[in-house]
Amino acid sequence: MKNMHKAEVIEPCEQTLLTYQDTTERVVLFNEEEVPFPDGKLIVSRTDLEGKITHCNQSFIDMAGYDRGELIGEPHHILRHPDMPAAAFADLWKTVESGGKWHGYVKNLCKDGRYYWVYATVIPNIRDGKISGYTSVRRKPSRSKVEGCISLYAQMKQAEVGA
Amino acid sequence: MIYNMTVSPDFPPEHIAGWYIFNTWLQRQLNESIHLELYNDFRQQRDAIQNDKIDLIYANPFDAAMLVREKGFTALAAPVGRADEAVIAVSEASAIQNIEDLPVQCTVASTDDPDIHLIGMIMLEPADISRDTVQVHQVGTYVLVAKQLIQQKADVGFFLAEAFDNLSSFVSSQLREVIRSQIYDIRHVLLAGPGIQEQHEAIKTALAGMNDDEKGQDVLANLSFESWEILQQEDTEFMIDLMDTLA
């Protein structure tokens, strides 16, 4: 996965190095501008067992700001925002790998450094009794729930940094 | 042997004749007898499904998931270019401009159409409205949903987008659309049950070639369909997964 570049990002922005669960790293750039989630839209994507994107709908492309070709085959964590605590995604993977359905509020990172909040649901795709991949649907979140998550995730991030 | 076919009760009333014409066409293609039974509501149709009285069904996505998982049905085809979208509307006189303007304890007018009710409730979530906070007035048709709004007996109403767009101008002029879903990936599908297994391939072949001759095109036009897209098993599994994420 390519590092983010200033030429593609709305400035002013900050820079940080993210380390993902698979131990890969990426330089990400982010700013303070939120993209409102449009009413009525659902973002739909599917990944393989490793979390690489195999399908994304037009709403996914519109919100993330990447072309379809830039997304297919890339890890879903291309959208990971540095404000998201690693523990949230660890819980997601633990849940879906054991066959469960995961719900949560997620702050996603756009290609241009802006962000958008979603209420995400992820389920495993069971075929012939085995997990063959994962489907994720993101919808417009309740603002009051997002406000609760902003402070909760900040505390979780602080705890991770201090650990 | 006589097979039984039915259609999801949410189809537009102006297509009743179209489904009878389709059934006649299909019988000729298969050289088999098929009885078309149109149920007034989802409850009656579910009873027929549970009693294994249905072999072929044009089902909404919510029921399609149940038919595949619990009744061993196979999705054969879906109309090209059509998706199930929902509209949330209010009375033209309502002060509600956005979903967030709604009180948490609001009143919803809805039908027993399961996927539209589900999508409608999802679109209310950003206002912290849930099934625990709303009062639902369930009515029999989308025209009655409109009536509930016009008579100010409900704050918002859920409509199948196609039904909302086909309301008479007199009715629609008294309503205002607040949100229309943009999901794209959820749609009605034609499913066949285990009792008609030996005809599955013949039905798919007939539907795939339907747009190739004038008669078939006429039948499609009566349903306002362009053509049929033949589905693979994975297409159906994907839609079922999607419904699972929403449920």
TrEMBL record, chain A:
InterPro entries linked to this entry: PAS, PAS-like_dom_sf, PAS_fold_3
Keyword terms of this UniProt record: Receptor
Residues annotated as domain PAS: 48-99
CDD domains: PAS
SUPFAM superfamilies associated with the record: PYP-like sensor domain (PAS domain)
Gene3D superfamilies: PAS domain
NCBIfam families registered for this protein in UniProt: sensory_box (TIGR00229)
Name of the protein: Aerotaxis sensor receptor protein
UniProtKB/TrEMBL annotation, chain B:
Pfam families named in the record: Phosphonate-bd (PF12974)
Gene source species: uncultured Thiotrichaceae bacterium
Protein name in UniProt: ABC-type phosphate/phosphonate transport system periplasmic component
